[in-house]
Design brief:
6 helices; single chain; elongated; 3% strand; mainly alpha
């Protein structure tokens, strides 16, 4: 059995950065931006922080996806032959697609806010009464979505832990025996 250290590392480190970075920004960057001194400065600080995070996040997501494909290829026999592995892989795929969709939509909203410049803001995703209506609407949506991405990617971390447990020799034996007895 070959080692899959590179693909597993890309999968895990990419997912960790995607989860951790979005969680950290939601928890700290958006709140800390409100300490910039004025509503206009708050918007500028939040925009600068998220704009700096975007290329790192894109690289993390890319690494995770490359690693995921590598892991799926390396474990294709287990997916087919071990009870529960196919369902776990399908769940991870659906959740990954959902996280990608929410991340992409959030970036579209973030670009709307960022391109408006130093939009008055109470905190990173809380619009000021002086913000333009379209910008305020984008900020309000971002305020909700900033928690969705870490929730989904955090769930992917948990499912990945479960997948690791499925690779224990006893689990492989039990799962392949159960799968072959139901076929």
């Amino acid at each position: 059995m070959a080692r899959n250290t590179v693909s597993r590392s890309l999968h895990d480190v990419g997912l960790a950065a995607w989860f951790g970075g979005t969680l950290a920004n939601a928890v700290s960057l958006n709140a800390a931006a409100s300490e910039a001194g004025s509503d206009k400065a708050t918007g500028a600080v939040a925009n600068a922080g998220w704009d700096r995070w975007t290329p790192v996040n894109a690289a993390a997501i890319g690494a995770h996806l490359i690693g995921s494909v590598g892991q799926l290829g390396a474990n294709k026999d287990r997916v087919a032959q071990q009870q529960g592995v196919g369902a776990m892989s399908a769940a991870k795929t659906v959740l990954t697609a959902a996280a990608l969709g929410v991340t992409a939509y959030s970036r579209v909203l973030g670009k709307i806010v960022s391109q408006a410049g130093a939009t008055p803001s109470k905190r990173g995703t809380k619009p000021s009464k002086r913000a333009r209506a379209d910008i305020a609407a984008a900020q309000t949506r971002l305020d909700q979505l900033q928690w969705v991405i870490p929730a989904i990617t955090g769930t992917l971390v948990v499912i990945s832990s479960y997948a690791g447990e499925q690779q224990r020799p006893g689990e492989v034996l039990r799962g392949t025996t159960e799968k072959s007895s139901t076929v």
